[in-house]
Amino acid sequence: MPKGSPELTEARKEEIINACEKLYQTMSFKEITIKEIGSVTSFTRTSIYNYFQTKEEIFLALLKREYELWIASLKQTMEQVGTMTKDEFAHMMAHSLEERAQLLKILSMNHYDMETGSRPEHLAAFKVAYGESIQTVMACLQQYFPDMTVAQKQDFIYTFFPFMFGIYPYTFVTEKQRAAMEQAGVNYVFMTIYEITYNCVRKLLGGGI
Asked: Scanning 7, 58, 145, 199, which has the fewest C-beta atoms within 10 Å of its C-beta?
């Protein structure tokens, strides 16, 4: 790690993450390289290695930031809204993920590569944010549905979080993919992030309002 203030270090890391995020809007994970990321930063490509050794570490940091933004959104809702019905909770969760399409995109496409291609300290830092996201959803369940048993809350968590990995590919398709589905005779109805998340949460919570 280069010498400098913690503030400068964090600012450099954020610039690198922001560059990666910008490229990811128009390029695939495979296409993006450290060289490409370096081309849209204010410092040299070799300087990136002072902060991240691989592009997987950069993407993992981007995913960590996405989880942190999602956590902040859920916590803000808990502070502002004291009670919710099951239907209102399903709407809230669906809206919260609708705003985090990038989180869902990274989860569905590159999660395994990012974890295996990152150093332990970077992976551990990410797992802190991931763990906090689980704890925050659990806290939401505890606040809004105090009558749920521990087993019911665990069932929700163990179903919903794996479900998140599949949201993006079921809601974002290319014209090539759509044409292939039609050619194969697959009569599939594509839903939005909001629709598919709302339906899942309502089913997990069971009947009633």
From this structure: 7
CATH of domain 1-51: 1.10.10
Residue type, 139: A
Cα-only R_g, the chain:
19
Residue boundaries of the structural domains of the chain: 1-51, 59-205
* Residue burial 38-50, b: 16+ Cβ < 10 Å; e: rest: beebeeeeeebee
Token pair belonging to 149: 């048993």
Q: What is the pLDDT of residues 59-118, one digit of tens each?
A: 999 999 999 999 999 999 999 999 999 999 999 999 999 999 999 999 998 788 899 999
How far apart, in Å, are the Cα atoms of 40 and each of 26, 44, 143, 149? 14, 10, 44, 50
pLDDT-above-70 percentage for the chain: 97
Is domain 59-205 classified as CATH 2.130.10.10?
no
Beta carbons of 21 and 37 less than 8 angstroms apart: no
Closest CA to 13 of 43, 51, 39: 51
Structure-token pair, residue 100: 């985090």
The pTM of the whole model exceeds 0.85:
yes
Alpha helices in 39-187 (DSSP H): 45-48, 55-80, 86-98, 101-116, 120-144, 150-171, 175-183
Residue 159 has pLDDT above 60, yes or no: yes
Angle at alpha carbon of residue 200, lines to 126 and 148, rounded to 5°: 85
CA distance 204 to 141: 12
